[in-house]
Amino acid sequence: KMVLKIHSYPNNDRVMRAKIAALYVGAELEEIPVSLPISGDMKERVPLGKVPFLETEDGSIVFESLAIVYYISGLRADMDLLGRSHLEKARVVSWLSYVEAYLSTSFPTLLFPHFRPDNFKTNPMEEKSAEEGLLKVLKALDAHLTDHTYLASERVTVADIAIMPTLKRVFENIAGDDVRSQIPHVMRFFNTCMGKANFAAVLGEVKLCEKSLRQKRDEQVKAKKAAEKAEKAKAKEATAAQPAAAPPAEKKEKPKHPLDLLPPSPFVMDEWKRQYSNNDTRPVALPWLWENFDKEGYTFWFCKYKYNDELQKTFMAANLITGWFQRIEHVRKYLFGNVHVFGKSGEGVEISGVWIIRGTMDPTDDNLMGKDDAAYYDWRKMTSDDAADKALIEDYCAWDGEFKGASELEFNQGKTLK
Length: 418
What we know:
Layout: E1 3-8, H1 13-25, E2 28-33, H2 41-45, E3 53-55, E4 61-63, H3 65-73, H4 86-103, H5 107-110, H6 112-115, H7 124-145, H8 158-173, H9 177-180, H10 184-194, H11 197-203, H12 213-241, H13 269-278, H14 281-292, E5 298-305, H15 314-327, E6 335-344, E7 348-358, E8 377-382, H16 387-398, E9 411-417
Parallel strand pairs: 1-2
Antiparallel strand pairs: 1-3, 3-4, 5-7, 5-8, 6-7, 6-9
């Protein structure tokens, strides 16, 4: 029995496609947990360092989930999962492209903000546009399935295997009763596939949502506002019936931040921020930094977003950084950071950055950024004594350079917290 290894983080929906295909062709699929970012030998063999990726019996690598399911489906020619005729094979590729180009693109707007609210912010205008776009895509799919049992053939192909995990996620979270009632042929197709043992074994129980996550959230917000309004009215009545309040208790002095208790440093962060803002970076600001930097009082840190493989649009990545900066405003005086977006929309997007932080406190500490977005990043302490680290610090500050060891993608845009 052929044994294949698929590398990914736990519970990755994109791995389900490979699991279904493996059942059809009789291959054994071993799941190998991966910590992001990928390091070591695999980093050199997997472009962009994204998961999942497949390792064949001879050690060859196949990356991107659609390519992986396509490879596995072709291991048994007699199954015709790739299509029988030349035309069917072309139709299979058409529907594989359809899934990735149209159906999954709504997730960053309609799905991720509900599961990772700190990383993906809700935008009502974008939500409305994404919902309309998704319904249009589903209706086009429904029109095709009016007189077709499956997507590309009258038998199950890899196109059906690829789309089913995505449809399950849509029907459980985004497309409520009001949407599903408009696409009866898609629902018939979905139920037909779920009736097959290989699909059911991997996808498991399907819990169709009555209402979308957005609808549920809006109802909760509405109910919360009504409750707050009623509570305020009740409190107002109670206050009116009470005698005059006693004078307020004496205010206790607010405890100092741990970083304010550190010994004074000759490196003045505000002066560095002025130097950086008012002068050319490489000719003036960076020489000033290296001449004045206090290694005992401040630390350099490199950060890389843990979920770069889920980023699809550069503007959404930029919005994540902006939201993060807004949420750490309360500790701004201890920080200076350049966080950049690399890559292009639809071709691979990454977020990473370099920080100067007061003291030696870990960035994920609750006294710094631990209660905000820092947990969504991998962190590494840097030192200007290391030539590679020093070059990387300069590249991030200057917004140009090789960014060696940080990203192989092209610099797209950057943001500075100062």
